[in-house]
Amino acid sequence: MRSPDPTPQEFRVSGARVVLPDHLIEGGAVHVCDGRIAAVGPADALPEWDGPTVDAAGGYLAPGFVDVHVHGGAGADFMDATPAAFATAVAAHLRHGTTSIVPTNTVGRHERILAFLSLVRRFKAEGPRPEWGLGRVAGCHLYGPYFAEEKLGCHPRDARQPTEAEYRQYIAFADCMLLATCAPELPGSADFYRAAGGAGVRLNAGHSNATWTEMQAAHDLGVRHVDHFFCAMSNYVSTRSRVGTPMQGGMMEFVLATDTMTTELIADGRHLSPDLLRFTLKMLGVERVALVTDCSRALDMPPGEYLFGPADGGGEVFYNDGSVGLARDGTGLASSVRGMDFMVGHMVHATGVDVPTAVRMASLTPATVLGLDREIGSLEPGKWADLVLLDEAMAVRRVWVDGREATLATHEHHQR
């Protein structure tokens, strides 16, 4: 096994198909110095270099993936809220190319959400440790408990309306909170959006049966993103159960019609058909659609029963069939069990989109959703040298974070 030096070094990756947001550079190279990208271009156009060089052997050299919606992996859920669980899940996704991860809580008990937030703050402050197999914790996604009960999906049955006494304690972690999701139709949602937005947190709508009018009101308050398109999301059919006739649009129609809204796709081959993936990309464009894993603790684990949410009480049981999580009663899906490399490969091989588009959906688009696109998300001089070397099947071969090569060991080695 390679043992990377923890100190950022100057080196070059050459002989690569370098993946830029809108095209490939065949025979390309990326030069790295002091943890940052120093130069990108055709290998024969860069200044001569006789120092350390990695031969990409024709592989795809892509920016590190960015996951804005992810719950766990390798047997750990972020809501287990222990340092070991965090390290295990972060390391699992680094092995699949995610160099910047946004730990995402589930609906759960107040004290457990606070423990989750405390660990996010700690891991973000520590920074990436690729020599330990740990990528960058960019900040968290506050995801629940403010969901509509009829759109709860596989989350623990503890959804509730936002109350100031509770959410002020969450927003106290705004220094490490990138996104906050709330169902717009809930009483108190407007005050929650004002408080979170006022603290500098980006606002989302999700797990909601909101009408177009309620989405418009949320948009007016700063909501610019909705979670996994088509999943746990209102549309003109579902809103009728709340408001009757005349039929009203919901989240789906509002996003399709509103140029300032972005969304997510779970491209695991089980949540959405290739037709729906292509449809969403065609309607919204690559700038508005981020790939997410929405991955559970069952990533890289054998088929069997697992808990979505904390393992020590409050989690919901689901079954991992090896390619997706299934609700215990067999009536619905329960999160994904795939890493971001699989999502990118599925977009390329199942939907026919080109490699730059699929990679952009997993890198620059989510980085832009987070407001971090000046530092991560694409191979541009000055950005952090977060690199993923992929083979023809989009499987991960090597990973660098901040210019340091990551140790990609099995999850048993990632405890601390």
Main attributes of the structure:
416 residues, alpha/beta, TIM Barrel, eight-stranded mixed beta sheet, four-stranded parallel beta sheet, 11 helices, 24% strand
Please describe what this structure looks like.
The protein has helices at 83-94, 110-126, 164-171, 189-198, 212-220, 240-243, 251-257, 274-284, 340-351, 355-361, 364-370; strands at 11-19, 24-33, 36-42, 53-55, 60-63, 65-70, 72-73, 76-77, 98-103, 136-137, 140-143, 177-182, 202-205, 223-226, 263-265, 289-291, 304-308, 316-320, 325-327, 387-390, 396-401, 404-405. The protein has 416 residues and is of the alpha/beta class. It has one domain (64-377): Metal-dependent hydrolases (TIM Barrel, Alpha-Beta Barrel), CATH 3.20.20. The strands form six sheets. Strands 1, 2, 3, 4, 5, 20, 21 and 22 form an eight-stranded mixed sheet that branches. A hairpin with a 2-residue loop joins strand 21 and strand 22.
